From TrEMBL, chain A:
This is ATP-binding cassette domain-containing protein. CDD domains: ABC_MJ0796_LolCDE_FtsE. It holds the Pfam family ABC_tran. Belongs to the ABC transporter superfamily. Residues 4-227 form the ABC transporter domain. The keyword Transport applies. GO terms for molecular function: ATP binding. Keywords: ATP-binding, Nucleotide-binding, Transport. SUPFAM superfamilies: P-loop containing nucleoside triphosphate hydrolases. It comes from the Bacteria.
Automatic annotation (TrEMBL), chain B:
This is histidine kinase. The chain crosses the membrane at residues 12-32, 107-131. SMART domains: HATPase_c, HisKA. Keywords: Kinase, Membrane, Phosphoprotein, Transferase, Transmembrane, Transmembrane helix, Two-component regulatory system. Coiled coil: none annotated. It is found in: Membrane. The lineage of its organism: Bacteria, Bacillati, Bacillota, Clostridia, Eubacteriales. One of its GO terms (molecular function) is kinase activity. Residues 198-412 form the Histidine kinase domain. It comes from Acetobacterium tundrae.
């Protein structure tokens, strides 16, 4: 079943001479439980693609369906609720709230939706991410790898339909990168999550079930013919 | 304020507050009008009194003073006493005072109208919101029904902040998980079916080759009694193996749910006769009798090939467990509720320890001396009969014989 599908997606920035086509005719679909990585050079449209898929930006034309709902037709108010419930984000620069401790950062998206966090699940999540000992620490007291693990926990907290990761290892050294990648893979397998991850590192791309390559706004699946 | 995060609740609360505010304002306005009315009535009353007194020759100055000067408690007491003498005091009935009655009637009507209209307004608002919520729930119910009816891409409307929307979001997650699960299950079934047919096809070829080699050896007539004996034995085993593979394939196909039964209405007697005749040669060879009793009018809806397989296994089983001179009786009966096929033999019977297990796959009795079976025939029969919506039961007495009942309920005729 397709948890995410796009059809003839176009995104253009600017007008007239300064017009830039960031995405051209993008059509693909991702099944539930798949780990997809997106690679491509800088400026090729990777982040634009992730913004479209994550309902952070509206496409110029074409459609995006997440779990059977047409995201491109939603209003801004609906979108923010939809994002909160259905999409988990992991960013390159962690984006944790500095005043909140590890546990509070992880349950934040649940509290934002006026819900009570399931303590057992949060405990399990902290254990899986190896943060049980550090759940009372502030982000500033953690290493980069640990902070990114907190961000992964935050993305997993609401059990979203899809997790989007924009270069999750971009700010980490190679050892921490490896840890974060292993954890991301482990946690998505554990909770049958769907992940779309942008990465520059081709060896991390091989963690994925499928690899998309973006070039000049065109998306192509590597090895698609073999599937 | 968790409860006010709900947009609907917030809107409803706002409308209610507005209505209540309006009620306060309107009632205050009416109190003002009531005061004015009271004043008008009092002045008219006083004027009447003044006029009357003037007409009866009282001093004009004195009358003016009577209405404008401040009166004392003593004045009131004396006045009350005077009026009481003429029967005019607080206890006087309202009916005798037309001004009071008119005043009461007018304001009773106004208060009634006011409270009634505001009550109706509140009620209407309340039921409007109830109706709205009801509609939302009904729509959700319809969508869930649609999902269950097979449209797995349907999702509930969950992009709002209210409680229902949060519940719907959870239901959507559940729907997605279910769909993913279903898809996986379907793929697994397909994979299983393909694997089984691959394996059996792979096995069939060497088996056919073996059979051919065996026949060649037998045809050579080696003149060696041992070789002939063992070639015949291996011929028998090969046939058994072929049978087993075919049955396994059938059972697996049934399990994978990839078989669609081609059900048609047939004459039961004709069908049973066909089944019986297939075993007549073997029965004659082993000196056993197979009898058939069936009413010609009975008609049953079934897949002929598969039910033949099921019944064939049961008859074969009966033949395997009877001695020469024993008899097998096939019988078809129809009653109001069901059509029943019974296969009865007077053979060795089933040991009580075995009777609960005979429909299990690969179950081999510890008590049976028969070496031929592999324990898959009855399991296959049960699967087929259950696919037809029927049931199979067995009764047996050790040494007396066994009866198999195949019961097909006539559900459509109930």
């Amino acid at each position: 079943m397709n948890i995410l599908s796009t059809l003839n997606l176009y995104k253009t920035y600017g007008m007239g001479d300064t017009k830039v086509e960031a995405l051209k005719q993008v059509s693909f679909s991702v099944s539930k439980g798949e780990f997809v990585s997106v690679i491509g050079p800088s400026g090729s449209g990777k982040s634009t693609l992730l913004n479209m898929v994550g309902a952070l930006d509206q496409p110029t034309s074409g459609m995006v369906m997440i779990d059977g709902r047409e995201v491109h037709k939603m209003k801004e108010e609906e979108l923010s609720v939809f994002r909160r419930r259905n999409i988990g984000f992991v960013f390159q620069s962690f984006n944790l709230i500095p005043e909140l401790n590890v546990e509070e950062n992880i349950v934040l998206p649940i509290l934002l939706d006026y819900q009570k966090p399931d303590q057992n699940y949060i405990k399990e999540l902290l254990g899986l991410l190896g943060l049980t000992e550090r759940k009372r620490h502030l982000p500033s007291q953690l290493s980069g790898g640990q902070q990114q693990r907190v961000a992964i926990g935050r993305a997993l907290a609401t059990k979203p339909a899809i997790i989007l990761a924009d270069e999750p290892t971009g700010n980490l050294d190679s050892k921490n990168s490896q840890d974060v990648m292993n954890l991301l893979k482990l946690s998505v397998d554990q909770y049958h999550q769907t992940v779309i991850m942008i990465t520059h590192n081709h060896s991390y791309a091989s963690f994925a079930d499928r690899v998309f390559q973006v070039n000049d706004g065109m998306v192509r699946e590597l090895g698609a013919s073999r599937r | 304020m968790l409860i006010l995060s709900d947009k609907n609740v917030r809107f409803q609360a706002a409308v209610m507050v507005l209505i209540l505010l309006l009620l306060i304002i309107v009632s205050q306005i009416y109190v003002m009008r009531m005061a004015g009315d009271y004043k008008r009535n009092m002045i008219a009353h006083d004027a009447e009194i003044a006029g009357y007194l003037l007409g009866n020759g009282l001093d004009e100055q004195l009358i003016k003073m009577a209405f404008t000067t401040q009166k004392t408690a003593v004045d009131q007491k004396m006045g009350t006493a005077v009026l009481k003498d003429s029967g005019y005091d607080e206890n006087t009935s309202n009916f005798l005072l037309p001004e009071i009655t008119g005043f009461q009637q007018k304001y009773a009507f106004i208060a009634l109208a006011l409270s009634l209209s505001f009550s109706l307004l509140l009620l209407a608002t309340f039921s409007f919101f109830l109706w709205k919520q009801d509609k939302q729930l009904n729509d959700a119910g319809k969508k869930i029904q649609g999902f269950m009816d097979g449209d797995v891409s349907i999702r509930l409307e969950d992009s709002y902040e209210d409680h229902l929307s949060r519940l719907f979001a959870k239901i959507n997650t559940m729907a997605t998980a279910l769909t993913a699960h279903m898809e996986k299950e379907k793929n697994n079934r397909l994979f299983l079916k393909e694997t089984i047919s691959d394996i059996s096809h792979q096995l069939k070829t060497p088996l056919a080759a073996l059979q051919m080699y065996n026949e060649i050896i037998l045809d050579e007539k080696p003149g060696n009694a041992v070789v002939v004996d063992f070639s015949q034995k291996s011929q028998r085993e090969l046939l058994r193996m072929e049978n087993l593979i075919q049955n396994l394939l059938k059972l697996a196909k049934l399990d994978a749910g990839t078989i669609a039964l081609e059900k048609n209405t047939h004459d039961l007697n004709e069908f049973l006769e066909k089944c019986r005749s297939a075993f007549m040669t073997r029965a004659a060879l082993e000196n056993k009798k197979i009898s058939l009793v069936c009413d010609r009018s009975i008609r049953l809806c079934f897949d002929e090939i598969w039910l033949n397989e099921a019944l064939g296994n049961i008859i074969k089983n009966a033949l395997d467990h009877t001695k020469a001179m024993d008899s097998i009786a096939i019988c078809g009966v129809e009653n109001r509720l069901a059509i029943e096929i019974t296969v009865k033999d007077n053979g060795s019977g089933i040991h009580p320890d075995d009777i609960y297990h005979i429909f299990e796959r690969f179950y081999r009795s510890r008590y049976s001396k028969d070496q031929q079976g592999i324990g898959i025939g009855l399991a296959l029969s049960k699967s087929i009969i259950e696919k037809h919506g029927g049931t199979i039961t067995v009764q047996s007495e050790l040494g007396e014989g066994t009866v198999f009942h195949l019961i097909f309920p006539k559900l459509t005729n109930l």
